[in-house]
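Quick question, first post here. What does this chain look like in 3D?
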Amino acid sequence: MAILLEVDYFNSYWVKKLTGNGVAYAGSNKPVDLPDVMAINPGVAYPGITKSSEKNFYIEEGRIKGGYNNLATDYGVKAYLNEPEPIQQHRFNSLIYSGVYNSRTGVNNTNVFSVADDLIRSADPVNGPIQKTYAEDTNLIVLQRDKCSRALIDKDTIYTTEGGTQTQAANKVIGQIVPYTGEYGISNNPESFAVYGYRKYFTDKDRNAVMRLSNDGLTEISAYGMTDYFRDEFATISDVGIDYNVDASLSATSSSTNTTFKIETSTLTGVITPGMSCSYSVNNGSTWVNTGGFVVKTLIDGTDTIVYLSELFVSITVPSSPPNNNLIRFYYSTTGKMIGGWDIHNKNYVLSMQTNPSSISTSVDTYNTLCFDEQINGWVSFYTYKPTLMGSLRNKFYSLDNSQLYQHYDDTVQNNRGLFYGVRNPSNVTFVFNPNPSNVKVFKTISYEGSNGWEVNSFVSGLEQPNPSTSNPGSYISNQDTSNKVYSYEEGLYTDSVTGQPQRAGFDRKENRYVANLVSSSIARAGEVRFGSDMTGIKGYFATVTIETDNSTQLGGAKELWAVSSDFAQSS
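> Answer (accepted):
Ran it through. Tokens below.
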């Protein structure tokens, strides 16, 4: 008599009771090694134990009939592996891939990581953890902290006897990891990675380098006239977590029964941003208790700020009336950032080096944003915005300021130039005038060709050899000539109080060219008889000039600047 039996355990045999000589054992006639059971029919599988505390039992046997040297059975197929004590491993230098996904056949094994398959490919752990991967055609770019490598995808490389290579299809999803020439990596800043075409850009802070990975290998583009600059700027970017705290006092109208409460806006010591954790103190900061939630959003309600938390595990005691010593602290740990992105509009790599993320501070002394142009192999411009993220989509360049998305170069809105994240800043260009090197010159005028609306914000000579201070012989005073501000054509217009005629205090237009005299604002030096506004021009070997847009002439409109020059005479 055949039966269908489901075995609960792997590689086990089910033990059943059979009758002896066609008679079932029962009562006192049963063998001593069998449990107390009811009488059963001959040849029928063992039905089970009658006692509620006992169950069917199984034994594990590897040889047929359990005989010595009998044929051994195979382990068979395991449907899954259940580890009784799984141990987590942190393999920072390894890549792992799942099963296949085929939408045509409906196969989706993206959540299958079979330990029976060879699905792990490891890089050299000496080069640090893998920070970034990028799939490109049949290659996988692997960027570690101290090394850049590539691996073939779905192909293997075979080296021939002549020293050449050839590829063939294989069952390896990720092939051998081959490093690029050069000891460069991406440090701890994968956010600096950007790609356009066959070029990849990223920073290596540990080596004071901005890198380009192309068909010709690795190139240090920070060496194009900016080595000293990046060396100094990278030193200010910290990899160590900095605790950023924002404290405030609870409002008397706060609620302690849900995840929404009010704080006094006037008591805020910083900016609250989504994602920050929250703590509460009833002893003016001496004892802090974690509320268990994080900030979802904030709204302004008169003099109070409404804070929405994800969860609130701790009940908050609301003061009866302010002022009070019940404080709320919002905090998170942060590090410096180096945000990179590709500007597809201007074909530039844009890099924003931030000592503090934009969610903490937008102050001009916490970031520097600049771009690299492939056309001239140089760094061409600084920007006045501090992004959280940057990137291009189709033919548009976008950046994010926290959770707000902005489109750059938007020409659908008139007079929108120089406006970033709601803040308008003037555009400026800095020149160095150095004709006839090694000759001391007097720069008398300044002129430019271009649009109306430019002004000279700064015109200074080079630093002269410092002289010892008479009051403190151990210190030196550097001498430098400066000029007054040269106003634009519109802003320099005024009416003469005597003649009543319009006059220009800054640029005047002659033959479609804007010109102005330079009025010195230099301080008196030892031995000088005439100085300051009594002197004409700026004296020095060279001069540094910054010309920028004004705040009134077609604000936000297009401004062009074609050439800037200065008339000079050799100093006597």
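The helical segments are 227-234.
The chain has five domains: 1-81, 93-180, 190-241+335-423, 247-315, 429-466+476-570.
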